[in-house]
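Late entry, evening session. Most of the bench is empty. Finally got around to the prediction I had been postponing all week. Sequence below, unchanged from the version circulated by S.P.
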Amino acid sequence: MVNSLPLISQPSFLRSDYGIITDTRFDQFDAIPDSIVSSGSAGTNVYWDFSAVKFQNTFQILQYLKVQLSPFNEIKADFVLELIDSLAKTQEYEAYSFTDSTFTLLGSGYIDKNNNKNYFPLIKQATLLTFPMAFGDTLFDKNDIKSSKKVYDGFGTLRMRYGTIDSVKRITETYKQGEITIVEYTWYDVNNASPVLIITDEFAPNNTIPFRQNMIMRVKKGKFTYLKDQKTQRTLLCKNGFLSFDYINIPSFDFTLYSIDGKCLMSGSHSQPVLDISHLTMGVYYIILKNQHTSDIYTFTKDY
């Protein structure tokens, strides 16, 4: 059975000497990971990364996670699955909640590699710290691109701790020098805390990265927690069919409003203190507000 891991209070990487992968039922999968990456505070942003495991379908992923997460039932982990197919036109995403061995699909979507069509926005905002390139705890040697390429031949994850913007630039420059072309990265501020990495473009223009098909990308707990953080006013107030922006202090912005399952329902430019959403049915919605200085995602509930 899978051994229990100690919860940590500081960002750290948990290696194979913890005896994590011990169940021989998973010998059928090649490239079983030699580590599970955990980062963040024990009760907030802990995630587990099983990125090196190859699966054929979502069911196999869930069965695998049920074993791997069994010591952590009390954590009630939420996680995101990213299923990658390097030959297909699209890349699929699924967001799940995990509670007491029960998996609940929260939403799904995909990105079209040619025009970013129908991207599920909540996943983009939430997939922090892990990315679809194999990567160790240090940067690849920029003077030895070909040797580095062997390290990430399609079944790993870029593992990045909190760092400086310089480290991000070095990563981008390193991969762009040789025959390897990678995506661009940027910073995203969650709850006004330390900056973290997200992906801005999922694929390089000519898609030179040799992804392995149907690879699970990441497992992350607390996917939606920051959306409702009270200190940063991430929850918008909905009253009498109108959405209020009066305490956000953004004079004008472009907005895109999504249903809980990732469908775009409204978009446009706005400069008024309220937005008429009387035509929407009851439920939870998400809205992204953008201007030249910022891009923030908020949640709100329409309950009548």
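Two things to note before I forget:
The first strand starts at residue 12 and ends at 14.
Residues 60 and 124 are 24 Å apart (CA to CA).
Will write this up properly tomorrow.
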